[in-house]
Specification:
Number of domains: 3
Strand content: 5-15%
Largest sheet: 4 strands, parallel
Structural class: alpha/beta
Strand order of the largest sheet: 2-1-3-4
Helix content: 40-55%
Radius of gyration: 28 Å
Shape: flat
Number of strands: 10
Distance between the termini: 56 Å
Length: 438
């Protein structure tokens, strides 16, 4: 807060000097300008709980998003006050614009610096908070895994006990008691949760209940109201309204541009396939699309012509004799996927989304992998969050598919235009070649 006050005043003076070319001392500036400097400080103070708190467990985008909204609100309040008080003629619009933008940039830089400095310190073992986990379950295992993978959070697990052992553990720890206590128990174990809360009756730690959300994998979790009845959304349509419209525009525009750019390459590949293999150039396979509807997905043919039973699809393996030399190159480079941009223009696929699997494989995995079919809550994609994180290619262990589904569900829960662009950029940066594609 102190840094914000200093920066707001400094930027106000420098904006006055720079724009009005008037090198006045701060106390010589007109009082109207200082009122516009003091108002933001007062308004930021009213937002103390939102802005000036620990962000160790939040993403930087959440911090910057909150800060941006608050600062925009501050400037809007000032503009309205200037208009209603008829004081706008006494203030340089250029100065106000420079002051507003300059202050936003400067305070954003300060927040970025503080955020990453603290992350760095926590990664080195400083500025940490001690955490005691109550309960042994799949939820607690997932929590510990996430904490271990997030050293920047500064959380240090100092123990894991059952509710019945909690009182004794707290007594042993004494004054070195934990700063955080997370109760990781299923919501059905109400009695054991109560035992834990009774043991924590005199504890000064922050106590948090971590329900078994991981088993539910809530999709678009939020509260909606139907006929006046509040409801928790466990699985509801995520691609609706403005987000749906933006994604549709993104797909159509990008697919059109990309198809124009790659059309010579596609023509060359088609010609090479025809000359080297003969037969059809495009391979069509039925897969599940949006809401589980069947669609035909296009690919360049990479195998010799062969036939399989209607209910049999044998995935390609390393050194698969069915894959031709040209086909092997197309698979390794992902060039065989290029015709799917036509699927995008047809509205059957998206550029970014969960990769579609064959119908036969879907029927198998939906029995063995929990929440598997929730992947079809959105359109399938040419690339996706799972693919840029290394989960593509042959599935030789069930754990690989489970992890791929987790990645797909993460994308569906957090899908946005920004995340789509990030995935597209990562796809280009990491390249199209992959050791698991064969």
């Amino acid at each position: 807060m102190a840094a914000d006050v200093v920066v707001i005043n400094v930027v106000a003076v420098f904006a006055y000097w720079f724009y009005l070319d008037a090198f006045l001392l701060p106390h010589e500036m007109p009082s109207t300008y200082w009122l516009l400097v003091g108002a933001p400080i007062l308004l930021l103070a009213f937002q103390f709980d939102r802005l000036y708190r620990s962000w160790r467990l939040n993403k930087i985008l959440a911090l910057l998003g909150t800060w941006s909204k608050v600062w925009m609100a501050v400037l809007m309040v000032e503009i309205v006050v200037l208009f209603l008080s008829k004081s706008s003629t006494h203030v340089s619009r250029g100065w106000f614009l420079l002051f507003g933008i300059g202050t936003f940039v400067a305070l954003s830089v300060i927040r970025l610096f503080a955020y990453y400095l603290l992350r760095s310190l926590r990664g080195r073992g400083y500025n940490y908070r001690t955490l005691l986990i109550v309960g042994h379950s799949a939820t607690s295992d997932e929590v510990i895994r996430i904490i271990a993978a997030s050293p920047f959070s500064g959380l240090r697990v100092v123990g894991q006990v059952q509710p019945e052992q909690l009182a004794e553990q707290l007594q042993v720890m004494g004054e070195r008691g934990p700063q955080e206590v997370w109760i990781c128990l299923p919501m059905s174990e109400e009695r054991r949760v109560q035992v834990a809360l009774e043991a924590l009756g005199q504890s000064t730690a922050n106590i948090r209940l971590v329900p078994d959300w991981f088993s539910l994998r809530l999709m678009n979790h939020g509260v909606s109201e139907m006929l006046g009845i509040p409801m928790l959304d466990i699985s509801s349509a995520s691609n609706s309204g403005m987000s749906w419209m933006l994604k549709e525009i993104e797909d159509k525009v990008l697919a059109s541009i990309i198809l124009v750019l790659i059309s010579p390459l596609m023509f060359g590949i088609a010609l090479a396939i025809k000359v080297s293999m003969g037969g059809p150039v495009i391979f069509k396979q039925q897969r599940h699309g949006w809401n589980g509807r069947r669609i035909n997905v296009y690919k360049f043919r990479t195998m010799v012509q062969h036939s399989e039973g209607a209910e049999q699809v044998t995935p390609a393996t390393r050194d698969d004799p069915r894959v031709t030399p040209l086909g092997r190159f197309l698979r390794r480079s992902s060039l065989d996927e290029l015709p799917q941009f036509i699927n995008v223009l047809q509205g059957k696929m998206s550029i970014v989304g969960p990769r579609p699997h064959s119908v036969v494989h879907n029927e198998y995995y939906k029995v063995h992998v929990p929440r598997y079919m929730l992947r079809h809550k959105v359109k399938p994609g040419i690339t996706g969050w799972a693919q840029v994180n290394g989960y593509r290619g042959e599935i030789d262990r069930m754990e690989k598919m489970e992890r791929r589904v987790e990645m797909d569900l993460y994308y569906i829960e957090n899908m946005s235009l920004a995340l789509d662009l990030k995935i597209i950029v990562l796809t280009v940066i990491k390249g199209f070649f992959h050791k698991n594609a064969y």
